């Protein structure tokens, strides 16, 4: 049993880590697969959250992690020396053959190699797509940020590198969903809209749903500016609970960089840096699901911060150019 190890944690982070303490990070075929206990107990489905170790990809040293002044030769050497990783998303720096091989290894590790794979062209939206025998035959992946199905043999997937991957399972109707929630998707309540679509299509009752929120950038590391704070403040009465830092100043517009910079006692022409706050996407999505009717005891999170644990996960915010994780769920 593995529990998350992070840096300095606030009280909300400690609660999140405790919530995810029973999640299992198991080894399989040279890979590490993270599993949510509430989903693992359901014998009619398969699921898993990928981790970084294993695979055949050599992740480049991103511009955000390379040492200042490093030469191109040093960056290339660092790339060659970096451990091979399980990158599951197509990227300019990785070959298609590597990604296909990584995906095959991942699907085999979770016991889903014979299932029909479905994923999206993710656009940070609130669009929800249903997967069935008809849509599965389409040549191109649909556009959106959530997939739902009730058909056996379908494996739903979303990709992340800091955003929140959310897996939903309706134990009554045996329906499932895979959701990608960045700050824009969270603002649009993508998780609740996926649940609503399941209600409409399959007769899902929220009280029958189990929700698992996988590794994502944590409150400790997710720094945002005035635009994000004001958007959340306008949409959610409880938004202040999800932020650390100068929430009120940012929400009220007091972050104006042109506001009398001479009062800061700094040299003329050098206004103070813009105020920033830290956003807890896990807490926000947990609240959104709970308000939609999912019991809090049936919503769990891994407790892992992708930016803190780049040894285990990919983080776009921390690394810049990096790989992609995958969260999958399917009906056997």
Query: Spans with pLDDT under 50 lasting ≥5 residues?
Result: 1-20
Q: Overall pLDDT, averaged?
A: 87
CATH architecture of the largest domain: 4-Layer Sandwich
Spatial separation of the terminal alpha carbons:
26 Å
The topology string of helices and strands comes to HEEHEEHHEEEEEEHHEEHEHEHEHE
Name of the CATH first level of the largest domain: Alpha Beta
State the helix count: 10
Radius of gyration, rounded? 20 Å
Strands, total number: 16
What is the SS-derived class?
Answer: alpha+beta
Largest sheet composition: 6 strands, mixed
Number of domains: 2
Kindly report the CATH topology of the largest domain. Answer: CNF1/YfiH-like putative cysteine hydrolases
What's the arrangement of strands in the largest beta sheet? 1-2-3-16-8-5
Strand content: 15-25%
Coarse morphology? globular
| CATH superfamily heading of the largest domain | CNF1/YfiH-like putative cysteine hydrolases
* Relative helix content: 25-40%
Provide a brief overview of the structure.
This protein is an alpha+beta fold. The chain has ten helices and 16 strands.
């Amino acid at each position: 049993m593995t529990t998350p190890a992070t840096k300095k944690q606030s009280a909300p982070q400690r609660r999140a880590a405790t919530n995810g303490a029973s999640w299992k990070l198991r080894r399989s075929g040279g890979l590490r697969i993270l599993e949510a206990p509430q989903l693992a107990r359901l014998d009619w489905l398969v699921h898993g959250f990928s981790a970084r170790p294993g695979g055949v990809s050599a992740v480049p040293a991103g511009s955000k992690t390379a040492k200042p002044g490093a030469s191109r030769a040093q960056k290339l050497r660092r790339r060659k020396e970096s451990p091979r990783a399980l990158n599951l998303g197509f990227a300019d720096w990785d070959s298609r053959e590597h990604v296909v091989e990584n995906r095959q290894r991942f699907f085999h590790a979770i016991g889903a190699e014979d299932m029909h794979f479905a994923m999206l062209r993710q656009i940070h939206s609130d669009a929800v797509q249903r997967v069935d025998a008809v849509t599965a035959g389409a040549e191109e992946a649909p556009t959106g940020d959530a997939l739902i199905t009730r058909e056996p043999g379908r494996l739903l997937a979303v990709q992340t590198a800091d955003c929140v991957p959310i897996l939903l399972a309706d134990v009554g109707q045996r329906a499932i969903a895979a959701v990608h929630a960045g700050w824009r998707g969270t603002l649009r309540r993508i998780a609740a809209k996926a649940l609503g679509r399941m209600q409409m299509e399959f007769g899902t009752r929220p009280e029958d749903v189990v929700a698992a929120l996988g590794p994502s950038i944590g409150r400790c590391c997710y720094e945002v500016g005035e635009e994000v704070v004001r958007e959340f403040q306008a949409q959610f009465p409880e938004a202040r609970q999800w932020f650390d830092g100068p929430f009120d100043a940012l929400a009220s517009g007091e972050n104006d960089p042109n506001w009398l910079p001479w009062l800061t006692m700094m040299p003329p022409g050098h206004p103070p840096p813009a105020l920033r706050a830290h956003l807890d996407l896990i807490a926000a999505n947990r609240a959104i699901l709970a308000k939609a009717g999912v019991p809090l005891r049936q919503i769990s999170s891994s407790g892992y911060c992708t930016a803190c644990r780049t040894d285990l996960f990919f983080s776009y915010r921390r690394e810049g150019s990096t790989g992609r994780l995958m969260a999958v769920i399917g009906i056997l």
